[in-house]
Amino acid sequence: MMxxxxxxxPGLHIKRWxxxxxxxxxxxxxxxxxxxxxNLYALLGAWLVENVAASWAVYYTGPVLAGIAAxxxxxxxxxxxxxxxxxxxLSTLMPRAGDVADAFLERRLLVRGPRVVAVGGGTGLPATLxxxxxxxxxxxxxxxxxxxxxxxGRLRTQYGILPPGDIRNCLIALADIEPLMERxxxxxxxxxxxxxxxxxxxxxxxxxxxxxxDFYQAVKAASExxxxxxxxxxxxxxQVVLRAELADGRMVSGESAIGKAGxxxxxxxxxxxxxxxxxxxxxxxxxxxxxxxxxxxxxxxxYTSIMPNLLVPGVADAIRRSPALKIYVxxxxxxxxxxxxxxxxxxxxxxxxxxxxxxxxxxxxxxxPGARAAAQPVPGGGRRARRPRPGGLPxxxxxxxxxxxxxxxxxxxxRSGEAGPGDRAGVPRPAxxxxxxxxxxxxxxxxxxxxxxxxxxxxxxxxxCAGGMARRG
Length: 473
Hints:
The chain starts with a helix and ends in a 21-residue tail after the last strand. The C terminus is likely disordered. 40% of the residues lie in helices and 12% in strands. The protein is elongated, with a radius of gyration of 30 Å. It has a seven-stranded mixed beta sheet with strand order 3-2-1-7-8-12-9, with helices on both faces. Strands 5-4-6 form a three-stranded antiparallel beta sheet. A two-stranded antiparallel sheet has the order 10-11. It has two domains: 79 residues; 345 residues, Rossmann fold (3-Layer(aba) Sandwich). Helix 6 links the parallel strand 1 and strand 2. By secondary structure, the chain is α/β, with parallel strands linked by helices. GO terms for molecular function: LPPG:FO 2-phospho-L-lactate transferase activity.
């Protein structure tokens, strides 16, 4: 009872609008009874026209006229009271002016969006997520946990937690928060013993891990705090070390050391951080892949952001088994020390060798602004990468050209055919109804693209990938 009475405390701006709404509803009831001559007229309505009835005609029409007037006034008062009451409550809960109706409509539509899984890490995956969250709330971001450099590496060594940097960037990318809150989580301390170099968001995840006792629970709790649209999933909860075999025969350990080795990469693989440990995929990761309608790989560092997720046992197999449309978003610039001299077909070949995917359709990208001096545009030429064993998918050229999204940075889905009846923009058609092979989609400033279709398929509409590159670590 006391909880109910709290709503009537002074200064809440609720009582007045509640009273007006009740008065409006009462007038609606009276108006209906007068207009349609309900028995309520005999009990309550007669006095309204008693003194007005100068003649039988006036008496006969008086109740109807009074009823219509009561209906009109009741509608106005009820609408005014209810709308102001709702606005008073929501403006307190959602203080940003003008956001109530838009947020309500947006969230209603987003929860019915396609189920999308985005795989990657570093600075590329957050850029994709920022665009995708405008089209669907059913997003699962599968993030690498192999980072061992910068703030993430220090926290990993000192506290034994999984590297929080890439997780932090993805949480911020999917968050529905004020710009100031985003700046706070990305703020990097520049001085102070033990603090210098650490972003606040990394320390927040560390504190949340200490509070909940589990890194994954900490990520879930942070998602609630930041009002994240979708889910951020570490590919594994086990401590792992990314290792690379180089073309000169050397072995390099550690994600941060691979790009500095000075030799082409032959292959990468994961090892447990402790000899007796294992590497197990997160159950929610496998479930998200199995339920996905669309799986997006990249953009990002090929060997140090995308590959570590595929090397977790069970993840690549789950992606291969999934009936979802698979799109690889390839960097349009080579990455010094990692993909020097790579063509798009070299990216595809590396993915096939490490993940065992089928035939890939590719689409050359565009030159990004502000590219690093040592980076070069990725050529689109070369033979198509094929599955290294019999089987695979039919070959064919992808039609269409990639263009920057007119809204500024975004993935534009090109397609090699027209949409069939019943297609929803941005939603893959069921496998039985799919048409020609899909062609890729391009974000600016990062990509060329290709797609992994399980027996054909396409994407109709647009897949967003907004800009906004976050510093790693």
